[in-house]
Amino acid sequence: MPHLAVEDISVYYPGQQRPALTRASTYVKSGEFVVLVGRSGCGKTTLLNVVAGLLKPTDGRVRIDGETITGPSADRALVFQNDALFPWLNARENVAFALKLRGVSRKDRGEMADRLLGLVKLDGFGDKQIWQLSGGMRQRVGLARALAAQPAFLLMDEPLGALDALTRERMQTLLLDIWAQSKVGALMVTHGIDEALLLATRIVVLAPGPGRIIREIETGFGRRYVEGETVRSIKADPAFALARADIEDSIFEGETV
Amino acid sequence: MTLSVETQRDIAELRGEPAASPGRRTKAGHLWSTRSISLGTIALFFIAWTLVAYFRLVSPVFLPSPLAVLWKFYTVATSGFVDATLWQHLSASLLRVFAALFFSLLVAIPVGIAIGISRIGRGIFDPILEFLRPIPPLAYLPLVIIWFGIGEPSKILVIAIAMLAPIAISTASGVRGVSHDRINAAKTLGASNIQLVLNVILPSATPSILTGLRIALGTGWTTLVAAELVAATRGLGFMIQSAAQFLVTDVVIMGIFTIAIIAFILEVGLRRLERWLVPWSGRE
Ligand SMILES: Nc1ncnc2c1ncn2[C@@H]1O[C@H](COP(=O)(O)OP(=O)(O)OP(=O)(O)O)[C@@H](O)[C@H]1O
Ligand SMILES: [Mg+2]
What we know:
The complex is a heterodimer.
Chain A: E1 3-11, E2 21-29, E3 33-38, H1 44-52, E4 59-64, E5 67-68, E6 76-79, H2 91-101, H3 106-119, H4 135-148, E7 153-157, H5 165-182, E8 185-189, H6 193-199, E9 202-207, E10 212-218, H7 221-226, H8 231-236, H9 238-253
Parallel strand pairs in A: 3-8, 3-9, 6-7, 7-8
Antiparallel strand pairs in A: 1-2, 1-4, 4-5, 9-10
Chain B: H1 5-14, H2 34-54, H3 66-78, H4 86-117, H5 119-132, H6 137-148, H7 152-176, H8 180-188, H9 193-228, H10 236-245, H11 249-277
The structure holds adenosine-5'-triphosphate (ATP) and magnesium ion.
Adenosine-5'-triphosphate binds next to helix 1 of chain A.
């Protein structure tokens, strides 16, 4: 079971007086769904980029099963807010690109890509060009592409941030379904507290100025959905509202202005 | 303030999109569409030319009639001028331009990518390009001839050099404009640097490269005539130059029109190529 440890990460951007992130430590185990929340500018994206290996921290390290990471790798695939798909490839080819990088033979790629598109409920959309897809569909192609890399950890930076409310709800349950099936460790950033509560097994709260982790809360609403409870009934549970108030308080407390 | 239908249409045309005008433009209050105005201008030009020639306001030695020029298209196409038919002159010129384009692309695209992705690449190539860019090809033509003689390679080389800067600069700007998210996405999927260049950076920069190619073809086509003035035995530039020496003005004018027509056809071809290669451009 892969274990990702974030150890004492500090990040100073060049020319910036205050650190974007100071001494942040947390972890993600496979089978967990960790969600980062916090006000704008508190360093969520910074932390995610460090974990992805795209940004070298000024201090600290990220370890997977004890090994310090040195850069980006397919075991930590990243999903972006704005899909970041390749418009010169169709949906299937976008997914197949990740398979190609993984060394899957050319003849197997098409079929595997179609299966992954099926997993994100896009059966039959393989031949569509990217610009012919809606925002939600694109995001699902992006998800399928990330899954094609067979990552041990799936990193997502506000993956549903650009979607309308209805599409967003459907995507949340899709994410839970896929997460439950694939057993990846998920690490996601979101601005939506309800979304965090619904998806997370653990919520990590960050505060700005300087960016830091101020709290971690174990939650279990996502698991309840996976075990068969409906979203409606989960959200109707008074415990859900209590948890939301609790997290809102934390985010508010962290305010130093 | 709202844009007029006219302006919106013009903007749409600039983007290469079909204009989303409400119905026919004439219904929007315009008696004449831009296209018919253009056609009218052209017609007026030919009528004026015909009249001037007909009434001999200018001696036919200096200004032959349109019909005479048209006739020259036929005679030069069938029996030739200065030992070659129109088609032979034309193909000699086209061959030079496209050979030059080929070699120029071969050098300029990698150079542009190097400038776009690497500090060192920019340090090396930027000064060279900045040096070459403002020099008119006619200025280095003599030097190229001193070094490489008056043969075919010199002509191709001069045209190729003229094409280098526009292609390299457009490529570099395309490479610099590649979305960071796309690069990062490919990196976290496990792409190596070479895979990044081939699978992400190059395709992303293709619209820009095509723009450079368009500018380069224009430059190449103008340089061509200059290059062919020097000891060529075939080519449109040579044909025009020889005709001018014998004051065969109708062939000179015919040659000029041939160049213009070919340039127009190339432009249309390039737009087709663009639509075929980068249908996604502008639709993201
Ligand atoms: N490339 C950069 N150069 C300099 N400063 C940066 C850079 N990227 C982020 N910062 C700063 O670092 C801090 C943390 O930014 P970060 O993007 O990680 O925040 P965030 O929590 O993701 O915010 P948001 O919720 O708005 O996405 C901010 O104060 C930001 O201004
Ligand atoms: Mg962010």
